[in-house]
Design a protein that fits this description.
Layout: E1 3-6, H1 15-23, E2 27-30, E3 42-45, H2 51-60, H3 64-72, E4 76-80, H4 82-85, E5 88-91, E6 103-109, E7 119-123, E8 136-138, E9 147-151, E10 153-154, H5 160-164, E11 168-174, E12 177-185, E13 188-191, H6 199-210, E14 215-217, E15 234-243, E16 249-252, H7 277-287, E17 291-296, H8 309-317, E18 325-328, E19 334-335, E20 341-342, H9 344-353, E21 358-361, H10 363-374, H11 384-392, E22 397-401, E23 403-408, E24 419-420, E25 431-438, E26 443-448, H12 449-459, E27 463-466, H13 480-489, E28 494-496, H14 503-512, E29 517-520, H15 522-525, H16 531-540
Parallel strand pairs: 1-2, 1-3, 3-4, 4-13, 5-6, 15-17, 15-29, 17-18, 18-21, 21-22, 22-27, 27-28, 28-29
Antiparallel strand pairs: 6-10, 7-9, 8-14, 11-12, 12-13, 15-16, 19-20, 23-25, 24-25, 25-26
Helix pairs in contact: 7-8, 10-12, 14-16
The structure holds ligand 1PR.
Ligand 1PR binds next to strand 15, strand 21 and helix 10.
Length: 550
């Protein structure tokens, strides 16, 4: 099998890239020291996280010069995400740190006045942005395909230096900012998006790079009408996973977090079994899910950390599911079964190495937020959120919020931040506050949702998974008031969750709130609707979506 060299110089999910390369029939050799770089005919530098951190790691480990030489010698080079950013002269993210300077220009942070930052989701890499529709595809890029991006800094477009210096490029638009999605010149190909996380469209790009096929005839000429620029509406399938009463690992689903059958044999009924996690994840991928989230809802508290069943689930899922995978449940500092202390960062590392792209933190985030307010809104630097986002980047840390409505007659009767609601409480209360809970909703805390999301944003969380206990499993639609309220409190993206019962509910949450993504569980698990049906409906409503490519 042909070989490509991979430089794993910084933390991140490298496993999916290896899986994608192997699926394409190539083997991976690891670059373990600068002396290995000259052995590579083809070299890939992936990267996530902080530009300064990545460049400093590369330079301190002595990689900068060997990489420059590899490129100058005309050998094939691919940079992914921060691996592409490294080619530029520098970045606003770390003005004091120099890039490789192969491409003129500086990376700039997206403006967050009118949109969420980081930019997370599926967007274009359009080589026909000037309106020309070509029959040739540059490294497999199609103007009507969508690719998975996750970043806060980008190379703004237009960049006069690109064309002047002979670079070909593909662009994307986020809000009203246009940026470089991919660059190509001679032996160099680099993408701001993650091809290994971009489904079949991404695998096509990776294959073209590995096989050195710079220009390929497109199988079908894309129609200009299909070439809509911009971030698509992200639809996420969520799998709550736990062991059932017989010890099997199953996908389950609660009604307002109660996952036991109402008519079961044992007290409280048996745990609902809706299927096998890996099979279901693959099914949703093939239906067009833009991401898959696993929530390990019982944390497997008595299991040695290295044997956590979710690790194996991620390993197997990432072999055939090439969209981002999030894992939540039990991510906190803990003591292993043999008494060893193990940090949340260590647990997250195990998950990233097994194929996760993001970790989701629930209960521990609430505790961290309470301490943040107790300290007078100052950071400790020691929370799981801070440690993981520092090591892997903000985009890798999701905070899963499990709020519940508490009705009050007026804002004056509570110190918590309240919302005026169109759906009064049982005694006609006109306001409510959203109480944060821990331990899967079993314990309410004296902390409201605004306090939680603002605190975790300050700590470096990159995204909020916004559940709602009142709505979970009700099939009655999302809590639009909650979603609008939370979106108004923070700049990081929000995933709306809980209550989706049909495709109309998903369209409604995108039309009536500025949510960044919508998550569904029960309606998919019970096979009432497929992800494709939801996306077809969104498309019919004029909302931009990514369709699954065969
Ligand atoms: O606290 O860090 O160990 O994380 C535990 C994680 O497990 C949290 O993310 C918490 O939300 C989740 N969790 C704990 N118990 C339950 C439960 O259901 N008993 N599941 C649970 C939460 C909610 C959503 C669900 C949506 C959509 N599940 O993920 O998928 O509400 O459902 P729907 O579309 O069917 O309405 P930690």
């Amino acid at each position: 099998m042909p070989t490509v060299y991979l430089l794993d110089y910084v933390a991140g999910n490298i496993r999916s890239l290896v899986n994608a390369i192997e699926k394409l029939g190539w083997t991976v050799e690891w670059v373990k020291s600068p002396a290995d770089v000259p052995k590579a005919e083809k070299l890939i530098i992936p990267g996530v996280g902080h530009f300064g951190h990545c460049m400093t790691q590369l330079s301190q480990a002595g990689y900068t010069e060997p990489i420059r030489k590899h490129i100058q010698d005309g050998k094939h080079f691919m940079g992914i995400c921060v691996g592409m950013q490294a080619l530029f002269e520098g970045s606003e993210e770390a003005p004091e740190v120099k890039g490789l300077g192969v491409i003129p220009g500086q990376l700039k942070r997206f403006k967050d006045k009118d949109k969420s930052v980081p930019h997370i989701g599926w967007n274009s890499a359009n080589t026909s942005a000037d309106g020309t529709v070509t029959e040739d595809s540059l490294f497999g890029l199609r103007p009507d395909s969508k690719y998975y991006y996750v970043h806060s800094y980008a190379a703004p477009f237009p960049n006069p230096g690109l064309k002047e210096n002979g670079w070909e490029y593909a662009t994307a638009r986020y809000g009203n900012e246009e940026f470089v999605g991919a660059v190509v010149k001679d032996n160099i190909m680099a993408t701001q998006f993650h091809p290994e996380k971009s489904g079949v469209a991404g695998l096509r790009v990776l294959k073209a790079f590995l096989e050195g096929q710079k220009l390929n005839k497109l199988e079908a000429t894309p129609s200009t009408s299909a070439t809509k620029e911009g971030l698509t509406r992200r639809v996420i399938a969520c799998l709550d996973v736990r062991a059932n009463d017989y010890g099997d690992l199953v996908v389950t689903k609660g009604d307002q977090y109660d996952v036991r059958e109402k008519d079961g044999v044992s007290a409280g009924g048996s745990v609902r079994n809706l299927g096998k996690p890996v099979d279901m994840a693959r099914k949703y991928y093939e239906q067009g899910a833009d991401e898959v989230t696993f929530l390990n809802i019982t944390s497997f508290r008595n299991c040695p950390v290295a044997d956590l069943p979710m690790l194996e689930i991620l390993r197997r899922t990432s072999e055939s599911v090439f969209v981002p995978l999030t894992i939540g449940g039990g991510i906190r500092d803990t003591t292993d079964t043999d008494g060893t202390k193990i940090s949340a960062l260590d647990i997250a590392t195990l998950y990233f190495k097994s194929g996760a792209d993001k970790v989701s933190i629930g209960s521990d985030a609430v505790t961290a937020a309470e301490e943040y307010f107790a300290r007078g809104q100052t950071l400790s630097g020691t929370t799981a959120i801070e440690a993981i986002s520092k090591a892997y980047g903000n985009q890798a840390v999701v905070v899963s919020v499990d709020p519940r409505r508490i009705y009050v007659s007026s804002p004056e009767v509570t110190q918590r931040n309240t919302v005026l609601t169109k759906f009064p409480g049982p005694n006609g209360e006109s306001h409510c506050w959203y109480q944060c809970t821990i331990k899967g909703g079993r314990e309410g805390r004296d902390l409201d949702v605004k306090q939680l999301v603002t605190a975790v944003e300050a700590m470096g969380a990159g995204e909020i998974l916004l559940n709602c206990i009142d709505k979970d499993g009700t099939n009655s639609g999302f809590d639009l008031e909650l979603i609008n309220y939370v979106k108004g409190c923070i700049k990081i993206p929000v995933i709306a969750s809980s209550g989706a019962g049909n495709p109309e509910h998903v369209a409604e949450v995108f039309e009536k709130t500025p949510t960044d993504a919508a998550l569904g569980a029960g309606m998919f698990h019970r096979a009432e609707y497929t992800v494709k049906q939801v996306k077809d409906h969104l498309q019919g409503q004029g909302l931009l979506v990514r369709q699954f490519e065969d």
